[in-house]
From TrEMBL:
Pfam families: HTH_31, MLTR_LBD. PANTHER family: BLL4672 PROTEIN (PTHR35010:SF2), BLL4672 PROTEIN-RELATED (PTHR35010). It comes from the Bacteria. This is Helix-turn-helix transcriptional regulator. Residues 17-89 form the HTH cro/C1-type domain. InterPro entries: Cro/C1-type_HTH (IPR001387), Lambda_DNA-bd_dom_sf (IPR010982), MLTR_LBD (IPR041413).
Length: 279
């Protein structure tokens, strides 16, 4: 089967999947009148389009398997309208040939007190991650430091995925060949506490399938402990910047940690304001 045929088959499967999802939802479940001459089981296409806030023609073409572009925001709206759970949502993204978004475990809720700490650390970039490097919260300085990192929409919200699946990562992270192996080794050490945990096993399986680089690093079975790191970045606007990366454990939620990036030299301190979009 050629690549063109593969894309066509996925679009056809996407259409069948969407039809099945809307067929299971009655109009009364979403606040619509059932009507007396309803020949369609479940919701009509135009009703899905209306509820999702998308064009009827666009949604019709999506179900018909036409080669149209579907953004993450639009797919999210369709997924919410059709009441998809996280497995169905990932399936939707996969069929639409977008990187599936990754949802953190419901137990990993960042306390408001920790969010206040993140805000207070600004202008130092800071973020909260778990053992798999899922990004659970960030302050504005962190988000603006990395807002031009991606050449395609960031749907996974994970630092490690951002490195090994983004084509521009090596150009931005100058010591990539030091940092990424360390991140994988840290994740491997955390994995020892989660062997057999379905979210971890699925995450590792999917990332290995997407990134031969990750699969090779994971196969080394190297482990590492927390340590202060130097992270060298080439920012699109500010230029070359050096940060010391410090990690702080979140006592309220075991496994979570705050990563804080502190400028390592006077030049980086001076360049820091240039990373802000409002500068």
């Amino acid at each position: 089967m050629t690549q063109t045929q593969v894309h066509a088959s996925r679009r056809e499967e996407l259409g069948r999947f969407l039809k099945a999802c809307r067929a299971r939802i009655g109009p009364e479940e979403v606040g619509l009148a059932p009507g007396v001459r309803r020949r369609t089981s479940g919701l009509r296409r135009e009703e899905v389009a209306l509820l999702a806030g998308v064009g009827v023609t666009w949604y019709t073409w999506l179900e018909q398997g036409r080669p149209i572009n579907a953004s993450a925001q639009v797919l999210d709206a369709v997924a919410r309208t059709l009441r998809m759970d996280h497995i169905e949502r990932e399936h939707l993204y996969r069929l639409a040939e977008l990187t599936p978004s990754r949802l953190p475990s419901p137990s990993e809720v960042v306390p408001e007190t920790v969010r206040e700490v993140l805000r207070a650390l600004d202008p130092l970039p800071a973020t909260v991650v778990n053992g798999r490097y899922d990004v659970l919260a960030s302050n504005a300085a962190q988000e603006e430091l990395f807002w031009e990192w991606h050449s395609m929409p960031c749907l996974h919200k994970n630092l490690l995925w951002c490195c090994v699946t983004e084509p521009n990562a090596r150009r931005f992270l100058l010591n990539y060949d030091e940092e990424v192996p360390h991140m994988v080794a840290r994740m491997r050490a955390e994995y020892g506490r989660h062997v057999g945990d379905p979210p971890w096993e699925e995450d590792i399986r999917r990332l290995s399938a997407l990134s031969p680089e990750f699969a090779g690093l994971w196969a080394r079975h190297e482990v590492a402990e927390p340590q202060a790191r130097l992270r060298r970045l080439e920012h699109p606007q500010a230029g070359r910047m050096h940060f010391r990366l410090t990690e702080l454990a979140v006592s309220e939620v075991p496994g979570l940690r705050v990563q804080v990036s502190t400028p390592d030299d006077a030049s980086t301190w001076a360049l820091l304001p240039k990373t802000r979009r409002s500068s």
